[in-house]
Amino acid sequence: MARHMNKKIFLADFVYEVETDFGIDGTPASWASTDNGKPAHRYWDDEDDEVELQFFDNQKRGEIGNFAASHDEKLVAASSGSIIGVYNLETEKHCMQFQGLAFPCVKLMFGPTLNEFGGYLLVIETSDRDERKSAVFFMELNQDGYMTHKPDTINVDELLQKSLEPVVSVMNDSFGVSSTSPLLESVRKGYGKALEKLRAGIESRHLSRVAGRPSGFGSSPFSIDGRLFLYLIQNESTQSGPRPPADLPKVIVYDMANKSQKHVLGGYEDAIMWTAFSPDSQYIATAAWDGTFKIFDVSTGDCKHVIGPTGGQCWSGAWSPDSKHILLCGMANQDSRGETFVAVYSAETAEQVNRFRDEQLRHWVRCAAWSARGEIAIVHEKNNVWIWEPFENKTISSFKVKVDDGMKERFAAVSAVQWVNGGEVLVARAGDDTVEIWNRVKNIKWRIQRPEGAGVERGIGMLRWSKEDRALRTFSRDGYMRSYHL
After folding, report:
1. WD repeat ranges (predicted)?
2. Domain encompassing residue 189
3. How many CA atoms lie within 13 A of 366 on its CB side?
4. Which residues contact 197 (CB under 8 A, 6 or more apart)?
């Protein structure tokens, strides 16, 4: 009998173990000593602080799907389906609830705000797979986290009742059909859905928006000053058949201040997976399934370099902190089932500096992070993490979760990494939401492990590192922020 695997089934009996631990020069990392009496290896339930965050009216455990935190850590936004809520950590208050989306929210992020009064910009990506429609909304919030323009709204239940009264009256007089008849139930449901869409349109009509979506896999859609934003249009794959050049995928460089397109970046033959401004906002880099990486000049929109075709799909990348180099990840010689492409290039000349090689590197690399110290964390789909020094072409360390069942490997593998504390500390989140923290300089570690039996409803949606009090904060689907002082 064929087996089926999803996140819920995976979590039911998965027990987290490490097969290869972080270390330096063959010396595994040791458990860190702590000042607060807590062990370096602990579990979610052993947090130092716990705060319940109320994002929505009648909030239910496990209903939160996406999180985002403002740059100053003051505001946290969350979504539940097509509803958005904002919580102010400073005042410990629920700021607002927004229901102006016709489609579910699939991603939230805070962007730099351009208004002279300060405040915040909340970016909301929505998508409807059935209708193949996507949109990005830009919501301005004041310094306390409330919308700068109070949205108009309608009472759907009240309007539905009033609107159906004439229909019910006619049906009763002419055919003896009462208001509670099952014959009217489909009418009530259908009209109710139509009014919900009307309410969403009215509530969101004053928000700026674009029709498209930002790319994923660690993309950086905003320029450093927040003036420009990247999003994709017509980004369906062409693998099912060719399309006219005018209908092929494109990157739009959007001017946030003027609310207009600055550049349209084209020349792609297949879907675009990753886009990112360089840290100095001088360049835009992209990776696409047509086997090419491109580097564009931000000021002119001209394509400066094309790297490839590599012979397979291109997936992701990462800029060096000084914007002088770029890591590019994709597939080479895909037909031979074997060659993954991970290499560093000069942004100025497009010449390859070094290429990462490992005998286990045979599948996609969709996530990478370049530290301020010049080292790169490479996350492999097949459950490997490598720390690579590209200019010396040296593998510093590696990590792997222990998995005995091949069907669970993709679910168990590390899914996200970030460098914190000036590049000295790496935070890695495994597939079951266990968190590994490794100090690369001192070669010490901490672990915040998922307790056995904890399901999807308690999964971690976002991690934040607080350098001031050396704390890791987790934001979970159950609506709690938990802090672990290390």
Report:
1. 265-306, 407-439
2. 156-202
3. 15
4. 102
| Residue 139 near residue 148 (C-beta atoms within 8 A) | no
Residue-level pLDDT at 60:
87
Residue 335: pLDDT band with limits 50, 70, 90: low
Letter string b/e over residues 332-348, b meaning 16 or more CB atoms within 10 A of that residue's CB: bebeeeebbbbbbbebe
- 363, 405, 353, 354: which is closest to 384 by C-alpha? 363
Over residues 75-85, mean pLDDT: 95
Q: How confident is the model at residue 199 (pLDDT cuts 50, 70, 90)?
A: confident
Residue 90 in tokens: 């400073």
pLDDT bracket for residue 2 (50, 70, 90): very low
- For residue 56, tell me if it sits in a domain: no
Cis amide prior to 309 (ω within 30 degrees): yes
In a domain, 163, yes or no: yes
Angle between helices 185-204 and 156-175 (to 10 degrees): 150
Q: Which has the minimum average pLDDT: 193-207, 309-323, 391-405?
A: 193-207
pLDDT in tens, 230-255: 999 999 999 888 899 999 999 999 99
Residue 98 in any domain: the answer is no
> Rounded CA gap, 444 and 21, in Å?
11
Buried residues in 88-122 as b, exposed as e (16+ CB within 10 A):
bbeeeebbbebbbbbbbbbbbbbbebeeeeebbbb
Residue 194 lies in a domain: yes
DSSP letter (8 states) at residue 269: S
Per-residue tokens: 75: 């505001």
pLDDT tens digits, residue range 251-306? Answer: 999 999 999 999 999 999 999 999 999 999 999 999 999 999 999 999 999 999 99
pTM for the model: 0.92
Mind listing the pLDDT tens digit for each residue in 414-470?
999 999 999 999 999 999 999 999 999 999 999 999 999 898 999 999 999 998 888
Ranges of beta strands (E only) in 162-271 are 208-210, 228-233, 250-255, 260-265
Q: Which two tokens stand for residue 169?
A: 């009256």
The sign of the CA dihedral 254, 258, 260, 263 is negative
Per DSSP, helices labelled H in 176-270 are 185-204
Residue 399 exposed, middle or buried by CB count within 10 Å (0-12, 13-18, 19+): buried
- Fill in the amino acid letter for 49: D
Rounded Cα distance, 144 and 118, in Å: 10
Structure tokens at 249: 């995928």
